[in-house]
């Protein structure tokens, strides 16, 4: 294992702040661009990351009808990113259309298709939220597993899940299915809005391929120290 398995989100509002964060943490090799920054900068942020030879997780979490999601996936696949997200709850037809669309978009742009991964259930949702607010009549681990299997059967490369479900998903989906875990919190960090967390070492031990760790690093008084502490705890030294 190496520190390329830790993805840090650029959850800032503009290009200038994103560049400042990258400059502060040059040791980070895999960055995530999400809704806030991409809505603010568009693909300009991807050009900056590529010019620095960084790996890119484009976390736009598409969720719409199949025709619309396919169009968005075709466009996003042209950017040459490493990972791209879609919600599993957009359904089987939509997931299949997205799988085809990333191939078409990447081929047209002459680039490698991204690994398309599906959000199973946002890590900010608790078992109580799922049952009482969303009225889903399944236990949370079962729901997350069903969403992962739906995505795998539709041809996706992997899923985003909380570290609390990753062992079960790894058992059922196999070793080649990419499992990416946000909602990861070192014992010394605040949980914030994350409701199903584990520590980085617990998440890797449970079978995660990649961890997404944001505020424990980026909102720390000293982000470099926080990064080093996490790497040390994981023996990535
Ligand atoms: O279920 C999900 C899917 C995506 N995320 C994203 O990961 C990071 C987590 O940041 P923290 O600061 O470590 O909480 C953030 O960009 C989310 O959009 C998620 O948290 N849960």
Main features:
single chain, 237 residues, 8-stranded parallel β-barrel, binds the ligand O=c1ccn([C@@H]2O[C@H](COP(=O)(O)O)[C@@H](O)[C@H]2O)c(=O)[nH]1, RibuloseP-bd_barrel, decarboxylase, orotidine-5'-phosphate decarboxylase activity, OMPdecase_bac, pyrimidine biosynthesis
Q: How would you characterize this protein structure?
A:
With about 240 residues, the protein is α/β, with parallel strands linked by helices. The protein is about 45% helix and about 15% strand. It is built from eleven helices and eight strands. It has helices at about 15-25, 35-40, 45-50, 65-75, 90-110, 125-135, 140-155, 165-175, 200-205, 215-220, 225-235, and strands spanning about 5-10, 30-35, 55-60, 85, 115-120, 160, 180, 210. Strands 1-2-3-4-5-6-7-8 form an eight-stranded parallel beta barrel, surrounded by six helices. The structure holds ligand LLZGTKA7. Ligand LLZGTKA7 binds near residues 32, 119, 194, 212 and 214. Pathway: Pyrimidine metabolism; UMP biosynthesis via de novo pathway; UMP from orotate: step 2/2.
């Amino acid at each position: 294992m190496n520190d390329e398995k830790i993805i840090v989100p650029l959850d800032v509002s503009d290009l200038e702040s994103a560049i400042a964060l990258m400059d502060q943490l040059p040791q980070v090799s895999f960055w995530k661009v999400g809704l806030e920054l991409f809505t603010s900068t568009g693909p300009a942020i991807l050009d900056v990351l590529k010019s620095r030879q960084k790996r890119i997780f484009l976390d736009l979490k598409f969720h719409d009808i199949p025709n619309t999601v396919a169009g968005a996936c075709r466009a996003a696949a042209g950017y040459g990113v490493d990972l791209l997200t879609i919600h599993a709850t957009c359904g089987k037809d939509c997931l299949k259309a997205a799988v085809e669309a990333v191939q078409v978009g990447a081929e047209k742009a002459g680039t490698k298709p991204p690994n398309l991964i599906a959000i199973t259930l946002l890590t900010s949702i608790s078992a109580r939220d799922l049952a009482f607010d969303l009225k889903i009549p399944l236990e949370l681990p079962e729901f997350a597993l069903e969403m992962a299997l739906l995505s795998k059967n539709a041809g996706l490369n992997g899923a985003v899940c909380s570290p609390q479900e990753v062992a079960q998903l790894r058992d059922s989906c196999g070793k080649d299915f990419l499992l990416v875990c946000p909602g990861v919190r070192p014992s010394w960090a605040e949980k914030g809005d994350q409701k199903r967390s584990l520590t980085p070492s617990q998440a890797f031990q449970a079978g995660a391929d990649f961890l997404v760790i944001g505020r424990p690093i980026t909102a720390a008084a000293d982000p470099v120290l926080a990064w080093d502490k996490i790497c040390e705890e994981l023996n990535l030294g």
